[in-house]
Amino acid sequence: KDFRNNVKPNWCPGCGDFSVQAAIQRAAANVGLEPDNLAVISGIGCSGRISGYINAYGLHGIHGRSLPIAQGVKMANRDLTVIASGGDGDGYAIGMSHTIHAIRRNIDITYIVMDNQIYGLTKGQTSPRSEMGFKTKSTPQGSIETSLNVMEMALTAGATFVAQSFSTDLKDLTAIIEAGINHKGFSLINVFSPCVTYNKVNTYDWFKENLTKLADIEGYDPHNRMQAMQTLMQHNGLVTGIIYQDTEKPSYQDLVKGYSETPLVHADLNLDEEKFNKLVAEFM
Ligand code: SF4
């Protein structure tokens, strides 16, 4: 079960995305997957390259569209574990509508967002996750927009698995990705993954000083949605761990009428009229 391939990542030395790559590889092995059981679908951005760095099925898609592709892959072949991945610009700006609808659809895939609060690939512009006042080439006088609190948004949209981690915390990050893969529904994992080249504010040291582990909050219950929301608001979203999980809500696949026991990719496509009519009837 070796999820490493021989492609050398061309991320900058020190980029947080290296740890995310390692955590996905470890988590996939730990849950017992083989490379041909896993598909990693990514968007555009530095982090979008990740699908080429993991020994599994992979597709480096188009900007903001990793989720539509990933959902299509899962619907065509339920036997695959599907991970979608990308950056905060990819998933929370151009791809935001897909993120919200995948959340409320609760389709059984894991979405890992490498959140560095900036656009790295295009050399450092303000992203939806940049703090107000953040100075970049696109906001030389400081951003006048508020940062999107994605975890609060996910809870509001009806997410059944919401978690956050920090890329240096490889052990915790791996465990969270394992939990996300094992979750029967859509799991959103936001990973603080510093851009060492363009973001000189939200650095490794900054996160170490500002993040609170949910495990250190006495009595924190990840099944309590109200407590999850209150905790996020109290800590301005800067918490790590499994923030919320609902194991009761059925996944999209559970509810699709006529969703065949046989994955579409294995279906007999040489249909005679009788078989064709039977297949169509399943969806009526
Ligand atoms: Fe990572 Fe930033 Fe370099 Fe992109 S520009 S590879 S996000 S450090």
Quick overview:
The chain has 284 residues and is α/β, with parallel strands linked by helices.
Give a written overview of the molecule.
- By secondary structure, the chain is α/β, with parallel strands linked by helices.
- It has one domain (17-250): Thiamin diphosphate (ThDP)-binding fold, Pyr/PP domains (Rossmann fold, 3-Layer(aba) Sandwich).
- 33% of the residues lie in helices and 15% in strands.
- It has 10 helices and 8 strands.
- It has helices at 17-30, 66-76, 88-94, 96-105, 150-156, 170-182, 204-210, 225-234, 252-255, 273-282; strands at residues 38-42, 57-60, 81-87, 110-115, 161-166, 187-192, 212-213, 239-245.
- An 8-stranded mixed β-sheet has the order 2-1-3-4-6-5-8-7, sandwiched between helices.
- α6 links the parallel β5 and β6.
- The longest helix has 14 residues, at 17-30.
- The protein is globular and about 65 Å long.
- The model has no long low-confidence stretch (mean pLDDT 95).
- The structure holds iron/sulfur cluster.
